[in-house]
């Protein structure tokens, strides 16, 4: 079974999380990790699991204006941040806008600041809502991975993302014992 991890990322943190999730999924699935600009409709239609994530901007999924602000912040001479290729878009909202209905298993994640979710918001909730609206069957609660105020992943988050991916894969694939008894 193939899993497709779709991500949007301004500064590389969500890409790193997506790659780590892909690593975890790869323990039992065939995996493609793709930026949102490079996902074909066929890749989604043929997948057994689709995992979608992006950065939390203004309490939810990014918009053209927040992506522009993110790139402008990175472009300031004193900024240590670098904007990812394609940071200006399309973003996840644009992708959902042209996505058809897919009765495929799915899960949502985001990156957000390390603070209570009630204060930061969570893009993953909107991602999960959009996936459900497009016919996907959610197989996990939306998950957040945390960044510092300097926009760097908290140190343990890559390992946590990998473990989350591995658990996700295990939850949708029969164990060897189950497979032989079926
Ligand atoms: C314009 C803008 C708005 C943001 N708004 C929020 C927010 O409302 N809540 C939050 O937790 N983080 C917010 N952040 C921080 C992002 O979540 C953080 O930059 C992102 O998770 C880093 O992932 P990336 O490197 O993949 O872009 C914002 C960042 C930018 C640039």
Written overview of the protein:
There is one protein chain. The protein is an alpha/beta fold and 182 residues long. 40% of the residues lie in helices and 19% in strands. Strands 1, 2, 3, 4, 5 and 6 form a six-stranded parallel sheet that branches. It is globular and about 55 Å long. The model has no long low-confidence stretch (mean pLDDT 95). The structure holds flavin mononucleotide. The site of flavin mononucleotide has 22 residues, from helix 1, helix 3 and strand 4.
Number of strands: 6
Q: Report Rg.
A: 16 Å
On the 0-100 scale, what is the average pLDDT? 95
H/E element order: EHEHEHHEHHEEHH
Apparent shape: globular
**How many individual helices?**
8
The biggest sheet amounts to:
6 strands, parallel
What small molecules are bound in this structure?
flavin mononucleotide
Decide which structural class fits the backbone: alpha/beta
- Percent helix among the residues? 40-55%
The oligomerization state is single chain
Distance between the termini: 18 Å
Strand fraction equals 15-25%
Contiguous uncertain segments of 5+ residues: none
What are its keywords?
182 residues; alpha/beta; 6-stranded parallel beta sheet; 8 helices; binds flavin mononucleotide
What is shown here, in short?
This protein has 182 residues and is of the alpha/beta class. It is built from eight helices and six strands.
């Amino acid at each position: 079974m193939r899993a497709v991890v779709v991500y949007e990322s301004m500064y590389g943190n969500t890409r790193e999380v997506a790659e780590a999730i892909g690593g975890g999924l790869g323990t039992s699935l065939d995996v493609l990790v793709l930026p949102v600009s490079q996902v074909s409709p066929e890749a989604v239609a043929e997948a057994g699991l689709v995992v979608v994530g992006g950065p939390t901007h203004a309490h939810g999924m990014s918009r053209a204006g927040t992506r522009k602000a993110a790139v402008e912040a990175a472009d300031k001479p004193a900024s240590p941040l670098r904007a990812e290729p394609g940071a200006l878009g399309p973003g996840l909202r644009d992708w959902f806008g042209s996505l058809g209905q897919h009765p495929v298993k799915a899960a949502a994640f985001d990156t957000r600041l390390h603070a209570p979710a009630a204060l930061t918001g969570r893009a993953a909730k909107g991602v999960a809502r959009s996936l459900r609206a497009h016919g996907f069957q959610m197989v996990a609660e939306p998950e957040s991975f945390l960044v510092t105020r300097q926009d760097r992943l908290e140190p343990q988050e890559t390992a946590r993302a990998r473990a989350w991916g591995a658990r996700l894969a295990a939850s949708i694939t029969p164990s060897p014992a189950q497979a032989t008894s079926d």
